[in-house]
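Hey, quick one: can you model this chain's 3D structure?
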Amino acid sequence: MAFAHFIARRILFDKDRQDRLSRPIVLIAVLGIVIGMAVMILTIGISTGFQGEVRTKVTGAGGHLQIVPLAQGDPKASERVRIQQSFYPWLDTVPGVAHIQIFALQPGIVQTGEEIQGVVVKGVGADQDWSFLKKNLVSGNVLDIGDSVKPQTLISRWMARRLRLDIGDTITIYLVKGREEVRPRKFRVQGIYETGLEKVDHQLALVDIAHLQRFAQWGIQAELQLEEAGRDSVHITALAFGGDRSYHYSWQGRTWVGKGPHALALPPGGDTKVTLIASDDGGTLPDTAWIRLQRPVPIAAGATPTLHVTRGGHGGTYKDYCGGFEVSLKDYAQLTKLDDRIYRDFIGPGLRTITARQQYPEVFSWLELLDTNVIVVIVLMVLVAIINMASALLIIILERTNMIGVLKALGTSNGQMRRIFLIDAAYILGVGILLGDLLGIGLALVQKQWGLARLPIESYYVDKVPIDLSFGPIVALNIGVLLVCVLAMVLPSMYVSRIAPAKAIRFE
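Sure thing. Here's the predicted structure for all 508 residues.
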């Protein structure tokens, strides 16, 4: 064992000198380091956990970034964009991208009896990732996408309490388009959620995106109107809805021009099919509708043949449009990098990306302030540890003045003497840091398991103090505190250089 190490251990663990003044001082220093380390570990764990939890809620509610039309100016009302894109749905195969899904937004008003509430109606499709909302469901279930028989909606607990609603209740949502067009839609409350995010809970009601696609009339829907004009002829008129309403009608295989009505002769025993393609000037996807007319030959002579009518077609191109795409990433830290790459390499002209940071700037600014708080707490705790250790080390030096004088008289250099007391400081710090780790990690595990410390969710977005214990930050904190404090002890340890052997040997 090295000389300096041997002497340092004898100073700290001398069982024959239990009455030394330095012992309670060392215990106080160790206790201060223990408390400081526990506070720093809890501060880092709570800050990291809180930031991660709130970011998960923000990105879970709307994705890490959204791909929307350039023309969209109102964040609560979507402009149309074609679902068929070069990046959809395979964008989730790009490294770092977890999921992509369609969505649409439309402002609305919820009415129940005498209560009304303004909302943002969000339409979601069959590709919706329900993992976040399932985790935050208070009661009920998520939406059954595609169930047009019983229109459903998902509302927040805050909205349910305000409007006195429960699972199974029916509400009327007035969808608003522009300043004049308002249409009511009835929905059954399928589920109630609570995220803790005011911007989500106080506004968002989720429905099947098909309701918004039809209401917004982003696509064209073609129809054929049939009127009997006589025993052997009918009149067919073209109808179209949606788009920009400047329609063009194309009749496949016929010379007809325009909307009509157009006369069509129907011979007995014939099978006649008429196909219409409706388009507009705005570049909307055209829609197709057809009608088949069948007149079997009558069995009795002179009887009027029965006309059988069959209808079909594409059913409207509104379902080929959405309001945008939500993209979820595997790691929030890659947000800026992947946002730049997606915008540069994958989306075409007329589209842009909006990140979660741009949608919720106040939330992310608040989270960034937590990093400052963590730095302040760590600096203060390290300063307290340095002051405690400096006091303990100086008392140990003064208490061992006689020993210092003897060792110097025997030829021990000032450097070796400083090394002895720095090793003592390292021992004290090591014990304090180890015990502080045990205390801090223990308290963190208790909070993580049982959530004893609660928070008002309306103020902090979470209902209990979140903890994220990561091995890397704790190890870095331990090494950093040990190095900084030991280096800080170099200055008080230099006091041994001023002790003269002749005076120190007579020192009592």
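One thing worth noting: The mean pLDDT is 88.
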